[in-house]
Amino acid sequence: MAEAGGTIAAYRALLRAQARSQTAYRTSFVVDVLGNVGSTVFDVVTVLVIFGVTRELGGFTLRETLVMVGLSSCAFATADLLVGSIERLPRYVRTGLLDAVLVRPLGALPQLLLMDLPLRKVSRALFGLLVLVVALVSAGIAWTPGRAVLAVVAPLAGVVFFGALFVATATVSFWWVESGELANSITYGGRDFTSYPVTVFEGWFRAAFAYGLGFAFVSYQPALALLGRTDPLGLPSWAGWAAPAVALVAAAGAAAAWRTGVRHYRSTGS
After folding, report:
1. What is the spatial distance between Cα 150 and Cα 144, in angstroms, rounded to a whole number?
2. What is the H or E stretch that residue 226 is in?
3. Domain residue spans in the chain?
4. Can you name the residues that pair with 27 across neighbouring β-strands?
5. Cβ-contact 150, 226 below 8 angstroms
6. Cα end-to-end span (Å), the chain
7. Per-residue pLDDT tens digits for 24-60
8. pTM score, two decimals?
9. What is the C-alpha separation between 52 and 31, in angstroms, rounded?
10. If you compute the radius of gyration of the chain from its CA atoms, what whole number of angstroms results?
11. Secondary structure of residue 57 in the 3-state scheme
């Protein structure tokens, strides 16, 4: 029990140190916080611009599409805040900083996340939540207890899914140090993919990303369940409730990849 308390205290100390260092220059920190809203705002504006020239996108109205944008933005921005700093892993492997992390009596992954927790991104996560709330309120959803639960569970499952994706793609750097662009193409590309109805994509690309990698269960399928719409692609109605299961599978896969990568790592001195 005492050991567990000491571990928690150590993690708290890491978090406090990060908070102090990032807020030391308060004006700069506030500017960073406000500036980080930009990418999520851009996602929303892009959809609004598209609907300026069309009434429907892939068979969905603006209000229906904004539910998907809200689910995607809220999930990705929160995962990026909590786990996104793991994308610096290639630099840690290349410079040997990971060696120092591994010799400490703390979990390597929590240390890496807390060492570079980007507190400035909290504004992006809050704005993503705001977009989701506004989209759900304006979509004319016929609320039931089940849909109310899904409105809470779906974005949380999306956070777990994107978090697992960040960890899994970063783990590639244990074998291939210059893997950053590959990781970004999947994580940030996945964010862009989930901001639109899956029906706007076709063929193998849709099959690979939407269902092979599971991106359809971040926003598209939960949005169908919340809106009470049948899937134009023919999947059963229960698919909209599968987001937590898909997220757990993704998390288990990422955990296995991380453990394998750490065992494979032989430090910069080998």
Report:
1. 10
2. helix 220-227
3. 2-264
4. none
5. yes
6. 37
7. 767 776 777 777 777 778 888 888 899 988 889 989 9
8. 0.89
9. 31
10. 20
11. strand
